[in-house]
Automatic annotation (TrEMBL), chain A:
KW Nucleus (keyword) present: no
The UniProt record lists the keyword ATP-binding: yes
Gene: livG
InterPro entries noted in UniProt: AAA+_ATPase, ABC_AA/LPS_Transport, ABC_transporter-like_ATP-bd, ABC_transporter-like_CS, BCA_ABC_TP_C, P-loop_NTPase
Highest taxon, organism lineage: Bacteria
Gene Ontology cellular component terms for the protein in this record: plasma membrane
Pfam family of the protein (one): BCA_ABC_TP_C
CDD domains assigned to the protein according to its UniProt record, in alphabetical order: ABC_Mj1267_LivG_branched
Protein name: ABC transporter ATP-binding protein
TrEMBL record, chain B:
Signal peptide: none
Protein name: Branched-chain amino acid ABC transporter permease
Keyword Transmembrane part of the UniProt annotation: yes
GO molecular function: branched-chain amino acid transmembrane transporter activity
Main subcellular localisation: membrane
Keyword Transmembrane attached: yes
InterPro entries: ABC_transp_permease, LivM-like
GO CC entries: plasma membrane
CDD domains the UniProt entry points to: TM_PBP1_LivM_like
Automatic annotation (TrEMBL), chain C:
One Pfam family it belongs to: ABC_tran
Organism superkingdom: Bacteria
Protein family membership: Belongs to the ABC transporter superfamily.
Record's protein name: ABC transporter ATP-binding protein
GO terms classed as biological process: L-amino acid transport
Length: 244, 337, 244
């Protein structure tokens, strides 16, 4: 069986700068895959490529059996690729409930109904609040709910836990584990919370200066000396978890 | 991989208690009653001049409602309201004068024609945003005016057109009172239609477009299509307003449809409160009254507009509509949650 | 140095912070902990004069500064580093830093630039580069550097670790510790509880806009909130948290 997402030889150049070089990455159904690395390593660019926001300079991507040609954000979304953004991009004047409603398409069965999604990410009771009035962490959670409302096959999350408190991270982790397990979604997430990556993810790929420097199980990858130097820092011994 | 899957917690049956039907439709019923009273009383009680002003108020309300959708809600900075009003006015007038089409039939054609032009201009907004869109639509307005002036074989150029007084099936609508009776239901239906659109899924998409194009695309909704729909709706409102304007004033010339109209409308929706339907209605009415009030004092109009903008922006940035919604919001609803 | 009593703040009609009192002592780090939407950023905004105070009292060295505007507070030495590294992306590193000295009348800006560059050697290498091209970590350094150019007595740091790689988080916190050693006073809002407590002398925990715990770092470590934050990062199974 072919993987849900298969990326081969993908490169992105901005002028003379290679933001991503010759990236290969495969993601199976129901798999949660972390993309980690220092700031500026090219992780968000990868998310942008898969979701059609960034054209590739070279390489190819497949979603299931389908070759993804030149994607636009709209076509990517319609093929079942949903995403969140590093800086939350919400519909600020709309209520929390309406943010999710804009995304849920009739005619396609959602995973959960909108109200349920809002509860699952931990925003119960805030349905009527304007999205722009939410705290930063709550905005991130709403973005996750909105992405799930698209009923995606592949979910791309750009730093979903940034700015979240421990309780919210735990709830989010349970939700992601559950949708991957029950519904077979593939999830690719960019994340700096190493503790979360270790607990949640099946696979991890580490990027540095646009290149993959390690990939494999999170535990193995996070004890790789190259990763420790470039990303974790000298003082963080690999066995020691960084609290959220 | 450890299983952490738990059964779904039953979703809470916490739906808001249903309001009674009467309570739910109360705003609509109140509006209907006010309109009915206005419809019955105004033609008897008001002078021709006052009724004429009421007719112009309706024209400006329709124009403001359309512009508010594009600028206030979807935040596409399109500055060609004047041209759209002119298209509606000239299409309606020329159909009546050159082809003998009755007024009531010329209305829907004017609406469709203006919609089509506005939708076509939206293709520019597919690529250009912000200042570029503003400049391109401004340029479109200038070109449109230039054409009106120079295509004098059709438009009678700068001398303008004396528009025939509308008549239908032998009934003349020449008197301002008769026009008022014709306009009020049209305006009411148009504004009510906007309200339905605004509170439905299309309205959500329109607000979403104004808040984040990127996010809209990311959930599979095409921002370009949303823009075209917004422009087309603006065109429909402006086209109707234009046809009504030609009938109400009885004379149109190229200079009635320039940037001045656009700026007046922009002031109207700013004073009323960007994005708010009530604001567009109130703003359109207030601005018409200001214009009528200082018509004979050259230059005063601009000063009054400027002052109105200053007062609104410094005093209540959410516009006149913000005054009402603020009062509503400060009820002790779910404060502190 | 700074004392806040009975502070109540609201966003529009919704009360976000209710009757909060706390103190910030000189030459130490005080940390504000709490879940998303607890009111941390709201308090920061009010302390820097960007949000009106609905009720309560803010005093700096005993003088009432409640309701003072942002410019006056900066003049008094209270400078905020806002959440999300808000640098001026089109301006160079040097220009960003010089803007931080905007309100100052003295002529020692040059010396101060040197002082900042000593703290942030990475910025010294990039004085002519536009801020938008810096990595996330460098932008955070620049934002702190810009605030320091205002010669603050009290620095308000809102989530400095947000979206940063672990190695960069360490670097940022090294600098925070260094600044306090040099005599600066810092009020810190942070989700990275472990990092925050590693530098904070004392702090308090917010929940739903009120203070539910306060004390020294050790006292805070005994609270439920902090306990859960550490628990949430353990290598064990995803934790069970109390459903709301």
């Amino acid at each position: 069986m072919s993987p849900l997402l298969d990326i081969r030889g993908v490169s992105v150049r901005f002028g003379g700068l290679a933001a991503v070089s010759d990236l290969a990455l495969a993601l199976g159904q129901g798999e949660i895959h972390a993309l980690i690395g220092p700031n500026g390593a090219g992780k968000s660019t990868v998310i942008n490529c898969i979701s059609g926001f960034q054209p590739l300079s070279a390489g190819e991507m497949r979603l299931g059996d389908e070759r993804l040609g030149q994607l636009t954000p709209v076509t990517a979304a319609r093929k079942g690729i949903a995403r969140t953004f590093q800086t939350p991009q919400l519909f600020g004047r709309l209520s929390v409930a309406d943010n999710v409603r804009v995304a849920s398409r009739s005619g396609r069965t959602g995973l959960f109904d909108g109200g349920e999604l809002i509860e699952l990410v931990g925003l119960a009771g805030l349905q009527a609040r304007a999205a722009e009035s939410l705290a930063y962490g709550q905005q991130r959670l709403l973005e996750v709910a909105r992405a799930l409302a698209c009923a995606p096959r592949l979910l791309l999350l750009d730093e979903p836990a940034a700015g979240l408190a421990a309780d919210d991270i735990a709830r989010l982790a349970r939700l992601l584990r559950r949708i991957a397990g029950e519904l077979g979604l593939g999830i690719l997430l960019v994340e700096h919370n190493v503790g979360l990556v270790k607990r949640l993810c099946d696979q991890a790929t580490v990027m540095h200066h646009g290149l993959v420097i390690a990939s494999g199980s999170p535990a193995a990858v996070l004890s790789d000396p190259a990763v420790v130097t470039a990303y974790l820092g000298a003082q963080a011994s690999p066995s020691q978890a960084r609290p959220c | 991989m450890r299983s952490v899957v738990e059964p779904l917690s039953p979703s809470k049956a916490g739906a808001a208690p249903h309001k009674s039907i009467l309570a739910r439709y109360r705003p609509w019923l109140v509006a209907l009653a006010v309109l009915a009273a206005l419809f019955a009383a105004a033609p008897r009680l008001l002078s021709d001049y006052q009724l004429y002003t009421l007719n112009l108020i309706q024209v400006n309300i329709l124009l403001a409602v359309g512009l508010n959708l594009v600028i206030g809600v979807t935040r596409q900075f399109a500055l060609f309201s004047g041209a759209l009003l002119g298209i509606g006015a000239y299409v309606a007038a020329l159909l009546q004068m050159r082809l003998g089409v009755p007024f009531l039939l010329s209305l829907p054609v004017a609406v469709l024609a203006t919609m089509a032009v506005s939708a076509a201009v939206s293709l520019v907004a597919w690529r250009a945003g912000g200042l570029y869109l503003a400049m391109i639509t401004f340029g479109f307005g200038e070109v449109f005016q230039f054409i009106l002036v120079h295509a004098d074989a059709i438009t009678n150029g700068p001398d303008g057109l004396a528009v025939p007084r509308p008549a239908f099936a032998g009934v003349s609508f020449a008197a301002p009172a008769r026009l008022f009776e014709l306009f009020l239901p049209l305006t009411a239906i148009a504004v009510a239609g906007y309200r339905l659109m605004e509170t439905g899924s299309l309205g959500r998409t329109m607000t979403a477009l104004g808040d984040s194009e990127i996010a809209l695309a990311s959930v599979g909704r095409d921002p370009r299509m949303a823009k075209t729909i917004a422009f087309a709706i603006q065109g429909a409102y402006a086209g109707l307003a234009g046809a009504m304007f030609a009938a109400a004033v009885g004379f149109i010339d190229p200079y009635s449809f320039g940037l001045g109209v656009t700026l007046q409308q922009l002031t109207a929706i700013a004073v009323g409160g960007f994005g708010s339907l009530a604001g567009a209605v109130v703003g359109g009415a207030v601005l018409t009254l200001i214009e009528r009030g200082v018509m004979d004092l050259p230059g005063v109009r601009e000063i009054v507009y400027g002052l109105a903008l200053l007062v609104v922006f410094l005093g209540f940035p959410a516009g006149l509509a913000g005054l009402f919604s603020r009062r509503r919001a400060s009820r002790p609803a779910d404060a502190g949650r | 140095m700074l004392s806040v009593s009975g502070l109540t703040l609201s966003h529009g009609a919704a009360v976000a912070v209710r009757d909060v009192s706390f103190e910030v002592r000189e030459h130490e780090v005080t940390v504000l902990l709490g879940a998303n939407g607890a009111g941390k950023t709201t308090i920061m905004m009010a302390l820097s004069g960007l949000l009106p105070v609905r009720a309560g009292d803010i005093r700096l060295d005993g003088h009432r500064i409640t309701g003072a505007g942002n410019d006056r507070l900066v003049g008094l030495g209270i400078v905020q580093v806002p959440q999300g590294r808000q640098v001026f992306p089109g301006m160079t590193v040097r220009e960003n830093l010089e803007l931080g000295a905007f309100l100052r009348r003295d002529r020692n800006v040059g010396t101060d630039l040197d002082r900042i560059f000593a703290h942030f050697p990475k910025l010294a290498e990039r004085t002519g580069q536009t801020a938008g091209t810096l990595s996330g970590g460098e932008q955070q350094m620049l934002a702190i550097g810009r605030a320091l150019m205002g010669k603050p007595r009290l620095l308000l740091l809102d989530e400095p670790s947000l979206g940063l790689a672990p190695v960069i988080v360490d670097a940022v916190y090294d600098i925070v510790a260094e600044l306090v050693r040099d005599g600066l006073t810092i009020l810190l809002a942070e989700q990275n509880v472990a990092k925050a407590l590693s530098v904070a002398a004392r702090g308090f925990v917010l929940e739903n806009g009120t203070v539910i715990a306060s004390g020294s770092g050790a006292e805070l470590a005994a609270t439920d909130f902090v306990h859960r934050a550490y628990l949430g990062s353990s290598d064990d199974d995803l934790p069970h948290d109390a459903e709301r």
